[in-house]
Structures are given as structure tokens and as C-alpha cells.
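Record type: monomer structure entry
Structure origin: computed from sequence
Chain ID: A
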Amino acid sequence: MRILIVEDDELTAKALTTVLEHQNYAVEVATDGQAAWDLVQAFEYDLIMLDVMLPKLDGISLCQKLRSHDFKMPILLLTGRDSSHDKAIGLDAGADDYVVKPFDCEELVARVRALLRRGNSTITPVLEWGNLRFDPSILEVRYQTRTVELTPKEYALLELFLRNPQRVFSCSAILDRVWSFDKTPTEEAVRTQIKGLRHKLKAAGAAPDLIETVYGIGYRLKPLQATTSKSDKSEIGEHKQQTLAALAGVWNRFKDRIHEQVSVLEQAAVAVLQETLSPELRTLAQQEAHTLAGSLGTFGRSKGSQLARTIEHQLQVGQSFGTRKGKQLRQLVKALRQEIEQTPQEFVSASQTHNDESPKLLIIDSDSQLAGELVSEAQMRGIKAEVATNLSQAKEKIAQARPNAVLLDPAIDNTTEEGLMLLAQLQQTPSVPVLVFTACDSLSDRLEVARLGSRAFLQKPLPANEVLEVVVAHVLQPTDTGAEAVIMVVDDDPQILATLQTLLEPWGFKVITLSDSRRFWETLEVSAPDLLILDIEMPHVSGIELCQVVRNDTHWSGLPILFLTAHTESAIVHQVFAVGADDFVSKPIVGPELVTRILNRLERIKLLQSLAETDPLTTVHNRHRATQDLNKFLHLSQRFNQPLCLAILDLDHFKQVNDAFGHATGDAVLRQLGQLLRQSFRSEDVVCRWGGEEFVVGMYGMTRSDGVHRLVQVLETLHEQEFIAVDGSKFRVTFSAGVAQYPEDGTDLQLLYRCADAALYQAKAAGRNCVLPAASVPKPEISPAKH
């Protein structure tokens, strides 16, 4: 759990940090109210501990500001004042609790635990999941009768999962919740901690996959299972049960409102028979029928949705009523009333999970040499690859364990017909992504492969590394779209808003809901969503008009927009896409369909962004993206008075490598160095190819000496690696680097680059194969040329 302490007294802040970190919380400190506001907008916190007397923005004002912007995390006020009036002011401002200084540490921790329980809707202080029991008050974990001893980070991880049992957390989301932003390691640290936690739980008797991997998304607690009967051994996942229970809770919250909507329809039906239907009642009834048509099917009442849609059509302006139509309308409304009073059908929502952390790739190809190269390349990327040299062997391997992806040559058995049949079979539920890798290249071949559902068509010959790049980018790229994406939903129906939150939040989406379209623009700018969901028909401003507004703004013009509406007429659908929509989902909402469409849209956007921002050879960021990120780091450094380390490294004698062994070998060296740099630095560090054989690394919160130390370690690792040229020759490479620090060596990116570049030149002049800090060299006006 992540806690923000807002306290300007350094001694008090350090004392609080020590106490809370001892309880395994991730703690960050802001020394004034404005800095705290900036942090809350940038990071997610489970609780804020807030002093009342603060510089720049006092605690009461900050509390009011947080609540007015719909931040719902618990707030604990700290102050030296003990009057009832002061307490009342703090609680009225939106605080959840109030502690007077000096405070007892044990009481303070207990209050924090209580607020965190309240914030996560946890009734009992002891967290349980099957036979697993965790008591945060005494930091005790037990599986059945056995005690499980964990490290502080393992405690924090387990508590995060237990307090959010329905959520899937990506590595970056876990880093955000368990580590402080100034102490954030690489994503590899998360995988290491997960592995250690699994091992200890398994030793106590738990299943090895109690914390399971949802490949491509992240980690979650494995859903509990229940046996239905002795004759029926089918098991229902606890996650599905929890989703159904959550939807039932939404239904219960809004059932009174639904009954009121049907009452309006009943009034309209009576008025029709009495020939007293006013235009106002007719319009209101039509609106209520439209809303019910969209929402009822989501709760398993598809018949009710159909009835409401029929009623809506009958109530449309211009439709005349006679005695027969009036009686028909009354019967429809009566049937609708009966339908909503029945027990709803199950809402089905499912997701595919994979317990193995490493993705599996099945290579179906009779060329054993090529297959071996592909396996080696896959292993370098952390992918488990197997080879099948004929179709019967391939089918046997698929039956034993379904892979995450298949690389298929349809002509493996000297005929493409059976290979294409296997491609078609793999598209059946549950489908397996297939990439075709073949020597065939006719339009008819490509067309047939596309029709059968292949994800990509690759033509032989192609180097193994390029093939694997396509496999990773199009199929196996682990994305954080579901865990990290912010989705903004605009709909005037509160039932739809609540339902979408229930459906999407277990996937890790952060859902921002808005019922009043007049507040659209300010909400859009504050929430900065990754995807926008709009209803078409809303009071004040329609979804179509909102879409036009978004598309007219250069900053938001690329935002994915999905329309969600009960309208299915072709004219409406055409209008939606004409104004710039990306997708269209009809009400009633089908959970799996909506989630799949959102994930696919976000993955597509992420892929396009990656292609535009990534150096294709080394797969690190390109210069354009790195410049943006480095300037963001500089802004944070200025605001929070944090150091920023900028390093430039350049391969030594790289031209000689190209001249002696060829450019293909030189590309392999650059590719390997890019991979080494990605593995050696934190996920939030900036790693980019600046140009040629020159790379730039930006490290926020690290000093010049820290940067030198890290780069020396990378240099040592690189020197141990042996490269093999096409002709079999073996060689090693080194690099030289210069390191500068903000603000000592420069206050903007250009000055920092010049200082680091001068240090790099000095490193080369000193014999290369070394890393020098900028402080040891004079600062030049213009950097000398490097060789």
C-alpha cells in the first residue's frame, strides 16, 4: 500500500516514514501542499497523511481541493490543535480521521489500517483467500496451520493482492503501489518478488500458482474454485462469481430507479388508453424506454431489453395510437414489469489466463537449421520455444499444452492444404494466434492466410531476429494497456456508468465516469484518458457532438473513441463513424465483447505509438521520444528539487567493426547493446539510441556518481559478451561514456548534453573503455567531434 505524507517538519516526516515503512507501506513525502497536489495528480496513493499547517497550500485547502476533484483515497489529518472546532473544520473539508500531535505510534498505525480497510471496503481486519490468512495488524501470514515468513516487500505484495482480489496488476502498476517513486527498481524486481512469494507459499502447502500470471496483463490471485456436485465436477471460477455478485449489487442499487422508469411507462400506457397522453409524458416515457433498452440486457434481462426497445419505437413522435395499439402498449409494459421482477440470468465474463510466466511459442517448420536459430533467438527474449517438424507432431504438442503463439509454415508436409486446415482449427475457441512464415508469396496465398485469421504473413528468407521481433510486437508483447489505461465514460444513465465500472475495474482499468456532458471538457483535461466511451443520446450535448469537439482539437484528435448506445440503425452507425469514431458497441453490454474491443483498440494504439517512438534496430526509444521524456524529468527535478543524471555512451571503434565484419554484424552489436541497456536500467529510466552508435540514458533521482557506477557495471557486462561474425570470427566491444547531473552541470537538456558529451570526449581521449563524470572536465561552448 502506498502512503503520501504531507509534512513540512523534517523530523516529524522522518519519524512517520520510519514507523510506516516498518509496517511495510511504501511511503513518499511532500513538504508543502502544492507539491502534494502535483504528486497526487501524477501517482496513485492508497492514503494521504496530511498536516494542517503547510506552506504554499494549507492542509484544509488541499483536502477540499482533493475532494472537489473526486479523489476518494482516505485522508488522515495531523495537527497540533485539539479543539472541537478545529476537528470539525478538518472533517467538514473531507478528511476521514483526525489525529492530534503528539500521537502514539501504535494508535496512529491502527488508524491507518482502519482507514485502508474502509477505503478498500474490507469488513474484517484479517484478509483471507481460501486457506490463506493475513493479519496486517501483527504482520502474520498463515496458510492453513503453517506460518509463512515473508520479506517486507513480499508482505506488501500479498496485501495488495488480498485487498484487491478481483484486480489484475501489471508490473508497472505493482511498482507504483508497492515502491516509492524515488526508490522504484526495474520490472524484473517485481518478477523476482513474485517468484519468491510463490515459493514461500508453495512451501507452506499452497498451490504454486496461487498468484497467477494473466499473460499480457499482469498478476492476480488465482480465483477460488467451487465444486457444484458429485455428478457435476465442473468448477466455477471465483472471479466470475465475484463479477456476478458485483453486478447484482449494481442492480440492487438501482432497482428502485428501474421501477420508477417502468412506472412512467405504465402511466403513459394508461394515458394512451384514456387519450390523455401529453407531449411531455410521451417524450419522458420514450427516454425512459430508451435507457431501459440499453441497460436491462447487461443484467441478463435480454427479453426486458427487447420489450423496452419495442415500447420506445411505439412511443416515437409521429406514431398514432388507436385502441388496438393502446392495448398492445399496455401489454408490452405489463410484460416488462414482470420481466424486471424475475431473477436475472447470469452475466458471463471470462478471461484466458496462463499460469506459466514465460510465453510459449510453437514453431512448425521442417527446416531444422532455421528452427534452431528461431529457438535460440526466442530464448534470448525470454520466450519458451518448441519445434514441430511435421503436422502430426504439431497437433500432439498443441493437445498437450496450448502455446501462446504459433509460427507456421503451411507447406511443412509438402502440401499447404493441411497446414492451412491447422491454421483454421487454431482460430476456433479458444483461439491461438498464428503467424505464417513461408516461401510462398502470391496474392492468393496471402489472401487465403488472411481469411483464415493469421496475425501476420512473413516471407522466407528472413533473419531469425526479425521474425521474433514481429512475433513479439504482434502477439507476445506484454502490454500494460489493461492495468494502466484510463477510460473516461460519458453517459447520462447512472446504471450504465456503475455497470461499466464493475466490468472494467477488475481488469485494472481506471474508469472515470461523467453523467453531465456539460462538464466534459474540464473532466477530459483533468483525467487525460487513454480511451473515451460515449453515449449517443444525452441531454445538453450529444455524444456525436462531443466526438466532433475532440476530433477538432489537435491535442486530442488521436484519442480512441468508442460509442456505446442502444441505437443500431444504419444511419446512426454511419453518422457515428463519419464524425470520427473508432468503434461501436450496441447496448445491452456484453462484458467479454466490450473488454476485448477495448483491449484490442488500446493494444493497436500502443503498437502504433511504439512504432513511432522506438528505434527499429535496437528497440529502445528513439531521439524524439527520449527528448520528450527527458524534458519531463527536468520539469520534475526542478519542481521537487531532485537530481537528474544524463549519460552519453558511444561504442569504441565501431567503424572498424563494420569494416572488418560487415554491417549485419554491426547491427547485431547495436541490437545486443540496446537489449543490455534495457535490462540494466529501471523501467522509468530513459534509454534511447540518439544516433549511429551513440546512446543516451536519463536517470531521474540519481546523482552523477550513481550514474557512473551504473554505467561501469554495464560496461563490465558488455566486455564479458563475445560476438561472433558471419565468418566465425570472435570479438568483443567496449564503449566510452560521459555523465552529467542536473542542476550542477546544466539546467536544461542542451547544457546537460554538452557537458556529458565533453566528458565522453575526454573518456575517448583517455584511452576509451571508461566512464567519466562531467565534473572532472571543463565545460565547453561547443563539443568536439568524436571518432
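Annotation 1: The chain is about 50% helix and 15% strand.
Annotation 2: The longest strand covers residues 644-651.
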